[in-house]
Amino acid sequence: MLLESFPWLSLVPPIVAIILCFLTREVMPSLFIGIFLGALILKDLNPIYAVADTALILRNNLADPWNATVFLFDFVVGGMVGLIYYSRGAYGFGNLLASKIKSRRGMELAASALGMMIFFDDYSSSVIAGNTMRPACETAGVSREKFAYILDSTSAPIATIGVISVWTGYQVGVIREVFESMDLSLSPMGVFFPGVILYSFYSFFAIALVLFLSASRRDFGPMLRAEYRTSTTGKIMDDDAIPMMSTERLKSKEGVKERAINMFVPIIALISVTIIALYVLGWRASGSTALISFTQAIEAVGDTDTGVMDALLFGALGGVISAILMYLPQGFKLSELMRAFVSGAEMMIIANLILLLAWSIGTICGLVGTGEYVVSLVLPSLQSSPWAMAPIIFLVSFFIGFSTGTSWGTMAIVLPIAIPLGYALGIPLHIAIAPVLTGGVCGDHCSPISDTTVMASMFSGSDHMAHVKTQIPYALLGAAVAIIAYLVVSIDFSSTILWIIALFGGIIAMILLAYVLSWLDARRKGIKLPLEK
Question: How far is it, in rounded angstroms, from Cα 163 to Cα 158?
Answer without folding.
Answer: 10
